[in-house]
Amino acid sequence: MGLRELLIPQDKIFFDLFEQQAGIVKEAAWQLVALTEDFTNVKEKRHAIWLLESKGDQVTHAIYDQLNHTFITPLDPEEISRLASTMDDVLDYIDGATEKMFYYGIGSTDSHMIELAKLIHMSTVEIESAVKGIRSIKDPRYIDERCIEVNRLENIADDVLAHAVTDLFKTDNAIEIIKLKDIYEHLETATDYCEDVANVLSDIAIRHS
After folding, report:
1. pLDDT tens digit sequence for 7-28
2. Which of 107, 121, 131, 152 could form a disulfide with 22 if both were Cys (CB 3.0 to 4.6 A apart)?
3. Looking at the 3D structure of the chain, how many domains does it have?
4. What is the CATH number of the domain that holds 65?
């Protein structure tokens, strides 16, 4: 520990908030899987995810508020801001996908939606583990492995989206094509943001190990 850290204790509340945020994102992803696998009581399930998104917004705001009032931070302010922002993006797109499922009035989900939802959830599990690892960064390789797995899952999601769109354009219902394509793309974008989170975490592990 350097003299700077000895003289001015670093504020560890950011790690508490990041872990709370990652847990909310993972829970929302799990509920997304539950919704796509059992597309009943959609209004209630969609509302539960919206509540998590609102809770996540509160944590994000708390992180930014803390950042504005903390002189010495355990990570660079830009790293804190990027991590909070990218995790919030994942949650926004999970919520947005369920919103579209509900308001578009689709009759059922399909295998592509279920697979994308599972990929999102698996990514958030890895993200939560990596987020917990940055508190002390005792094992940067472990964090990097989690991030590599998120990148792998995102590549799979790209393939799922490609197959979903290919199957979709074999149909001839223009309105359904527009609706479903939008939902597929929203789900896949959530995995893109998971990859963004992983990239931020990987950078943090490298810089602070």
Report:
1. 344 568 999 999 999 999 999 9
2. 131
3. 1
4. 1.20.58.220
